[in-house]
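Hey team,

Filing this mostly as a record. A colleague (T.K.) asked me to run one chain through the structure pipeline before their review meeting, and I want the input and output archived in the tracker in case anyone asks later how it was produced. No errors, nothing strange. Just documentation.

Input sequence:
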Amino acid sequence: MAARSDRQVLLVEDDRAIATVITAALEDEGFVIAHCTSLAERDRLLGERRFDVMLTDVILEDGDGLEGLAKARAGAGDLPVIVLSAQNTLDTAVRASESEAFEYFPKPFDLDELVHAVKQAASARAAAVGGDDAGAATDGERMPLVGRSPAMQGVYRMITRVLRNDLTVLITGESGTGKELVAEAIHQLGNRRTGPFVAVNTAAIPADLVESELFGHEKGAFTGAIAQAIGKFEQANGGTLFLDEIGDMPAEAQTRLLRALQSGRIRRVGGRQEIAVNVRIIAATNRTLEPMIAAGTFREDLFYRLNVVPIALPPLRERREDIEALAQHFLVLAAEDGLPRRQLSPDAMKRLEARSWRGNVRELRNVIYRLALMAREDVIDGVSVSDIIGEEAPAQIAATPAGESGVGAALMQWLAEENPGPGTIYRRALAAFERPLIEHALARTGGNQLRAAELLGINRNTLRKRISELELEPGPLGRLK
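Output structure:
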């Protein structure tokens, strides 16, 4: 048992079982716990005693635990607050951030992570570390990121971490997973929401025009440049520039982009004057960049400039529990777009949930719109689903010759360049690939070491040991600011 420190924790939780577990874990670490189940009791205790940390549920017996939370914590001397919630939506995570919560944990949570966060909060309190006065997002329209699966909860937590700063974000995920929606959410809910949001798909621009598109050009800079043109960087000044499919950017444009990120200044094609720009960069890709770095087709220094905060979006097949909510959401949107108002029968929903959704959320949206248009009945049944969109063909999994996969190609490239000596290939190859593998697993799970260990198929203690030995960041347990 840890030595007692008499650090005081106020636990506002009306689920007795959860409160008992949290209390026991924190008492083992030397904390003194005061437990209550209502807002009224919370306010009374805050008025009577000094606390080092407060943990609060959102849905309490007499109201919303987030209502008036910012005022309550300010009245207690900027008391660090950790929010717990079973309402696992982006809206809840953002509301927790707007209330200046120190941390947000969706239920169910990892108890070890919670205890660690409480320790961090108590240390921050002791060191009198305060937050900034960044304005909170207004109660405007929330972004349509739908889903309460554990995978999406990790995404929501990562989004809330970047709302009050301008850190560069790299969003990864398969096509159709909603990368641009995440970028828009970060912009519209963050401190740059009053500025422009400019999106550019680098894969859709001819290679010889990428630099002109991004940085603009002067009149006469090249054949056809009949007038000065302002590039995307200048258009996004004061706001956010979203660079989609960054993995398809030509090498020369990568170099100029890196220079712009390093200096905060750009130069139009054919121009001599450098122009200062104040732009937040959010990049996205459906490609795995590490093998491209090994192959020399993507700059490693640019990758590290972009990959400050990684957000990995799960494919739809890994969050099937969200399919029903997404389908219902798209039915509403279809009706708002003028299509007949439809419902899905339980059998229809089961058939949708059983599909592989190789096109992810985008494919699901298109299917729902097609069903809304073509179904003959207001309630779409399973037979109609099969008739309209057809039965899904079994996935064809072809054998991949050794060295042809992305990782295999990168390994072959590494062996050719490094030429490791006899008896060292296994050890050196493992060292070269273990770091990005663990980093990817942590990014994919939002920094949750338990889920990352499960994803990798190793023990959590083993993962922790390797994180320490590789000197990796253990996970995003910092402040929601």
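Quick notes for T.K.: The chain has four domains: 7-126, 169-312, 328-389, 406-469. Residues 425-444 form the longest helix (20 residues).
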